[in-house]
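Pasting as-is:
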Amino acid sequence: MLNGIVFMLIGLDLPEIVNGLGDTDIYTAIGYGVAVTAVLVVVRILAGYAAVITTLVMRNFITVADAQSPGWKTPMIIGWTGMRGVVSLAAALSIP
């Protein structure tokens, strides 16, 4: 329910955002949005792999850690599914 309210509030701000574009046309703004979204998704996936690598290194120093490797699919799934809802909106709103 909270996600829905946030999406509605963002939708209410859309006319003001479009008016604030100035000389930039809507297609250029959409291109910027797609580029920023792609960068955010790639960074999120890379952060998932970095977390797995850190965990694999640190398990050498922790005796109770699980010896099983998560493989390459788990960080990809975690990275891809992490960008949704209000988190995506907060990332989009952080763009000046």
